[in-house]
Amino acid sequence: MAIRLHVGCGTVYLDGYVNLDVPVEGYSFLAADRPDLVAMNRTTVDRYYKHEESRASLEHGPGRPQACVVDAYAAVDALPYPPDSVEEIRSVQCLEHLSIKDGPRVLRHWYERLKPGGVAHVDVPDFEETARQLLAQPDEPSKDWYYRLIYGSQKNAYAYHKNGFSPARLERMLREAGFREVRHVANTIHFYPVTIAEGIK
């Protein structure tokens, strides 16, 4: 059976994937212990966000309880799978939370875990397009939203952005990690600027 990993899953529990994230006391729980949270967070790749996101939901919260539910706890740089064993690694709005030094190391770790022909699906904010939109704003207060997109919500220790991407930079990093082919993917799930690419081993 194909192994597909959803790393840094947060509040999105994807059917057909092993959902992984780090333990956070009072916020993240094991699926085996909390089937109620699995039901609350369960969704599919075709409808990644079960509840549509908006600027208001990101700025003020979704207005409903949220929790992370995982199949297993694992950090993105320590996936508990041997080399050449994984069919797909899906990462959505995760890699930007790693430092400039750690990003390439994590992509290499993912590359090693994938089977030949395996895919790393990487979805990150588009720093360059966000900056362009910021600079186009008519006044300083209008820029605040774009600064938030660039630096993260900073609502907790995990909500800081430490790295920035453009389509060209993400492709270069994937190729430098060893991926033989990189294809860009259209954004169908976010309302803010992102860049999405798939690296094929």
Task: Describe the fold and architecture.
There is one protein chain. The strands form three sheets. The chain has a seven-stranded mixed beta sheet with strand order 7-3-1-8-9-11-10. Strands 2-5 form a two-stranded parallel sheet. 28% of the residues lie in helices and 25% in strands. It has helices spanning 35-41, 55-60, 102-113, 127-135, 140-151, 167-176, and strands spanning 4-7, 13-14, 18-21, 28-30, 42-43, 68-70, 72-73, 86-92, 114-125, 181-185, 194-200. 29% of the residues are buried. The radius of gyration is 17 Å and the shape is globular. It has one domain (4-127, 160-200): Rossmann fold. β10 (181-185) and β11 (194-200) form a beta hairpin. It contains six helices and eleven strands.
